[in-house]
Design a protein that fits this description.
This protein has 278 residues and is of the alpha+beta class. The chain has two domains: 3-145, Helix Hairpins, CATH 1.10.287; 161-253, Alpha-Beta Plaits (2-Layer Sandwich). It has ten helices and four strands. It has a four-stranded antiparallel sheet with strand order 2-3-1-4. Helix 1 packs across helix 4 (50-63). The two termini are 29 Å apart.
Length: 278
């Protein structure tokens, strides 16, 4: 097993923290962060760190690969919701690890023929820029010259940021609680882009809330709705917020993750197997 992959799995390393980016960072942000970190810890530097550099490289390869990033984010989400059955989480972790190893093996087959050439070109460019820095005595601004493999860009539009909200239904308040009110209540966790009311029964009413970011979605999922509504103290919706009872990830059907039908089918099968365990 690749030592870096083993380190990521066994030490439960957060790949976003390794690169210093957030969950909703764009592919350009991830690429830029990688270049900065790679230049800082490159083994060819006097104070370079090979282990750290390999971890940075592996983090970038996973987060810039559409399929692997989606699976990694799904695994993180499952860990975040704290599955009661530890065996289920261990099984999902093992499957993700196997997929990483297979991906690495496939990547190595394509990378070996030209890796030495890429290293030489990268060293040559860096030395030219270092000489230029020495001659002109100006700060180096050439971190974007580090050669990188072309990777698939990740589109954030495929991330599921929708939650299903359950709150106590009161007949006398029915006309007071609409999509706008729900949006005001839930925006305490992050920007809300859409609210869809989903009817009610004798005890509870329901709604779907779509957040602008994964972070906002996760904060809403982590909140303990069995506690008092003191989180809304000082807001105009404090009293109505006390009606909230439960928030969970919405099970939405996503038809296409990428423009590749085969990849889409694999990802749909994967998410289906994950949802069946939750």
């Amino acid at each position: 097993m690749d030592q870096t992959i083993s380190q990521i799995i066994n030490d439960d390393i957060n790949l976003y923290d390794v690169l210093g980016v957030s969950l909703d960072s764009t592919p350009q942000d991830i690429r830029r962060a990688y270049r900065q970190k790679a230049l800082q810890f490159h083994p060819d530097k006097y104070d370079g760190d090979t282990t750290k550099f390999n971890l940075i490289l592996k983090s970038y390869e996973i987060l810039s690969d559409n399929s692997l990033k989606l699976k990694y984010d799904e695994l993180c989400q499952i860990k975040l919701t704290k599955l009661e059955n530890r065996a289920q989480l261990d099984d999902l972790t093992r499957k993700f690890q196997d997929e990483l190893i297979a991906s690495e093996s496939k990547r190595q087959k394509h990378r070996h023929p030209n890796i030495e050439l890429m290293k030489q070109e990268g060293l040559k460019k860096r030395r030219i820029q270092e000489q230029k820095l020495f001659d002109e005595k100006k700060p180096c601004t050439t971190i974007y010259d580090i050669p990188l493999n072309n990777n698939v860009s990740v589109s954030s539009k495929y991330a599921n940021t929708t939650v299903s909200l359950k709150y106590k239904f009161k007949k006398e308040l029915e006309n007071l609680i609409d999509g706008n009110v729900i949006s005001k209540i839930m925006s305490i966790f992050g920007e809300v882009t859409k609210v869809t009311m989903n009817g009610h029964d004798n005890r509870y009413a329901y709604a779907y809330i779509e957040f602008a970011t994964i972070d906002g979605c996760n904060q809403a999922l982590r909140h303990n709705y069995s506690e008092s509504a003191r989180k809304w103290d000082g807001t105009e919706v404090r009293k109505l917020a006390s009606l909230l009872r439960e928030c969970k990830k919405a099970d939405l059907a996503i038809s296409d993750f990428t423009n590749n039908d085969k990849v889409n089918q694999i990802l749909r099968d994967y998410l289906k197997s994950v949802n069946s365990r939750i």
